[in-house]
Amino acid sequence: MTWPRFTAIDGRDQPPGSDGELPHASPSPALTHDSRQGTGLPAAEHPREARVSSPPGAQSSRRAAATDVVPDFSELIGCSDEQLEELVLANLDPEAAGLWEALLVPPLLGRVRTILIATQRRVDTDLRVRRSRRNERGSKLGFDPASPYEQRYGQWRARVTVFKRLVETRLAQTRAAETDDNRQASALNKRHRNAVRRLAHAIDCHRRALGTALDPEPADRALWQILDDVTVPLGPHGIPVPVRDMLDTYWSPEQNRPNPTPNPFSAADSDRIVLQHNPPAEHRQKGTAMDTAATGDDSRNTTEPPAPWPEDLETFAEAVQPTTKPAQNTEN
Q1: What is the pLDDT of residues 266-314, one digit of tens each?
Q2: Distance between the two ends of the chain, CA-based, in angstroms?
Q3: 42 three-state secondary structure
């Protein structure tokens, strides 16, 4: 089974340059796959640096080969790692939204993320190696922006940067999908655990209601046996514990009751409010002594009653008017 593919940094179709680039005994393989062979193996090594661009015809043919046709889900699950990698790297563009909806499902999400992480590391390694080669060549031969070497290097680096951004975008989508899956799995686990707790509590209430006064039927005994047969994971290691032990040790009857309305003030806040309104006697005496020392002989004026509050806003507005305001006709 062969998947359509397009690699943005496949640059092995241009003839090698002869602009004095440094030869290397063991060059790094090109960061791409050989589309002419249809395999997932690295491109063949060349004694010189890997070529950095492709003819327009080859690029357009590979670009047209990429498609957003969503294969059957069973075929996606049955893909080998090489086939899945070829499919992922061939459809990194935003146009392949339908295909990526099928790839971001739990059976494939982990494999797709592994492929993207490995590709990101390969891109970073290739960028670092070729930058080092360029600096080494420039230190010996000089940096000439007009040379074919620098032009090809700039074109290659621009295409690799675009490819890297596509990989990082898809990798961010896998992280978001994994976070959503974990959140949904946690919520589902919590609902199932609460359902098991309520069922176990109902069975235990049924057992206690019959008691020893009546002879239980076989159906009753089979129902009660569920408390010992059904287990729930407990702790970080997921140790299975029977629900009967959970009822006796961890699940109290209060957990089946609705949660009370939370108190906006805690006990500490209540104590602090009481202390603010009713300070201790020594604090009150100390405050009175400080007020007396500050006011001196004028303390006698503090016994005067406060000014009466106006009866309405209109009277209050008249009370704050400046004294130089001319008199108004009260009849109007």
Answers
A1: 555 555 554 555 555 555 555 555 555 555 544 444 444 444 444 444 4
A2: 97
A3: strand
